[in-house]
Amino acid sequence: MKRLFMQEVATRDGFQNEAVFIETADKITLINQLSECGYAKIEVTSFTSPKAIPSLRDAEAVMHGISRKPGVEYTVLVPNVRGAERALGCGIDEANLVMSVSEPHNRSNLRMTREQSFSQLSEVIGVIGQGPVAINVSLSTVFGCPMQGEVAADEVLRWVDRFANLGVRGVTLCDTTGMAFPSQVRELSRAVIERFPELQLTLHFHNTRGMALANALGALEAGIDRFDSSLGGLGGCPYAPGASGNVCTEDLVHMLQLMGYDTGLDLDRVLAASALLPGLIGHETPSQILKAGRRLDLHPIPEHVHTLSKQLPSNSAERIS
What CATH number should be reported for the domain holding residue 231? Predict the structure, then answer.
C-alpha cells in the first residue's frame, strides 16, 4: 500500500476567499481538530498584509493559539521579508512562497513582474536561511493561464530550476485556475521528478472544470505522493472567471482510500471537521462526500421493498427503467 502525504490548505487558501471573517477562536478550534486527523502538513494562515487579506489579519494570534501535534508540519504563506520576520516569530515549520510562471497572472495577482517576484522571494529565502524552517515555493498557473493560455513545460522547469538552485526544500505545481488535464499533469510531473529528484514535490489542483480528481490520478501515475487539498473544497482564484474551489479533501481521500492508498487520514475525523464549515462561513460547501456519504454508507431498506406494498402498474416506464 503506497503511502501518500496529504496537506490541508482550507484555513489559508480557503478562508482567504470567504466574505466573512472567521473568528480567531473558531480558526484555532478547527486547526486543532485538523491536527488530529493525520495530515502531513496544515497551511494555517498567511502573513500577508492585513489590508490585503483582512480575513487572515489574525495570523499571529492563530499561530500562537493552536496546539502543535508532533508529526504535523505547520506551514504559512510568506509574501515578503516583513512577512517572513513575522512568521519566524511564531515558530513556523515551513514558509510557503508563491509566484506565477505566467507573466500576466503574476502581474494581476501580485502586482509585480515575475523577475520582481523572484527577487523578492530570493530575499525571503536569504532571511530564512539554512535554519530549521523549511521553504516551499508554490508555482501558480503551471498548467495554463486564463490570460496567457498555454504555459510551456520548459518555462515551468526553468522556474523550478531557479528556485532549486536557491536551496528550497520543495516546490508545489499549482493548477491555480483549473486548466489542467490528466495526461498533461502526468507528463509535467514526470519531467519535474526526473530532473529534480531531490525536491519534495506537491500537486495542487482546483476543480474549476470538474477535473481535479482525474488530475490527481494523472499525478499518481507519474509517482506523485504529496497533495494539497481543501476541506469542503473551499478556495478559488479571483482571476479565473467561474472558478470553483480547490480539490475537496474528503472527496479526494475517499477516492484514494477506495483505491488502496494509505493517506494517513482518518476520514471520519475529516468529515466531522468539514461539517463545521457551513456554520463558520455561512454557506454550503462543494463537498460531495459530506452530502452523499461514503460509498458504503448504506441506508435502511424501505418497508415496501420487503412487502411489495407499493408495486407500480405493469406499464410503468419507471418500473422497467
Answer: 3.20.20.70
Q: How far apart are CA 77 and CA 241, in angstroms?
A: 24
Please give the model's pTM, rounded to 2 decimal places.
0.93
Query: Among this protein's residues, is 237 annotated catalytic?
Result: yes
In DSSP notation, 54-101 reads GGGTTHHHHHHHSPPPTT-EEEEE--SHHHHHHHHTTT-SEEEEEEES
Cα 38 from Cα 56, distance rounded (Å): 24
Residue-number span of the structural domain to which 211 is assigned: 5-292
Is residue 317 included in any domain, yes or no?
A: no
Domain count, the chain: 1
According to the model, what pLDDT value does residue 315 have? 59
The one catalytic residue among 37, 174, 237, 248: 237
pLDDT of residue 207 exceeding 70, the answer is yes
Residue 219 lies in a domain: yes
Taking a C-beta distance cutoff of 8 angstroms, is the pair 44, 10 a contact? no
Contact predicate 147/213, CB 8 Å? no
Residue 241 has pLDDT above 60, yes or no: no
Considering the domain boundaries, does residue 307 fall inside one?
no
User: How large is the angle between the packed helices 182-195 and 153-164, nearest 10 degrees?
Assistant: 40
Q: Which three cell numbers stand for residue 234?
A: 473551499
- Residue pLDDT, tens place only, 256-290: 999 999 999 999 999 999 999 999 999 999 999 99
- Closest C-alpha to 14, from 268, 273, 199, 200: 273
Q: Has residue 147 got a pLDDT over 60? A: yes
Helix (H, G, I), strand (E, B) or coil at 156: helix
User: In 10 A of CB 177, how many CB atoms?
Assistant: 25
Is 214 inside a domain boundary?
yes
